Amino acid sequence: MTDPSDDVEIESSADFAAVPDAFQRLWTPHRMVYIQNGEQPHIDECPFCRAPKLSDEEGLIVARGTHAYVLLNLFPYNSGHLLVCPYRHIATYDLATPEEVAEIGALTQTAMRVLTAVSRCDGFNIGMNQGRVAGAGVAGHLHQHIVPRWAQDSNFFPIIARTKALPQLLGEVRAQVQAAWPDTTAP
Ligand SMILES: [Zn+2]
């Protein structure tokens, strides 16, 4: 399956020292899309540090917790592709505090429930690419991917699911997910 936002070669999971699995798209290296193609006036600023300073609409944020927040991936693998980020600029999961770990986990659970309710997805790919060598596009700031999957991967928001970056459509998805998000998500 071709990622519409990607012009890099997709690595086959068969090349890895493990059994082939369904996760190969999670390992596709991100390009520095946020930094190169974004509208950031301060191009050096980390996109995941900057997003919480924006409005929910501008930052594509669907939920704000105490230690972490949830936003739409600007270049989704699939429609409804969410990212859970700590507010702190930390690179890897082992640097997260127990409070951050707990809230990242709780927000991930809530995201799964919300996406299931809103989009009727059949499954998820969830994971973190740790370090640029592992495919992290924004390697400096930890982010957990939550990618909803459908049996056909084409039933929900079929246009945007194969569309790179149409802010209007991303905005519709953001509003729908945010509307379904419960008020209390903190653990
Ligand atoms: Zn950051």
UniProtKB/TrEMBL annotation:
InterPro entries: AP-4-A_phosphorylase, FHIT, HIT-like, HIT-like_sf
Coiled coil: none
Alphabetized UniProt keyword annotations: Hydrolase
Domain of life: Bacteria
Keyword Acetylation: no
GO molecular-function term, one example from the UniProt record: hydrolase activity
UniProt-recorded name of the protein: HIT family hydrolase
Organism of provenance: Cnuibacter physcomitrellae
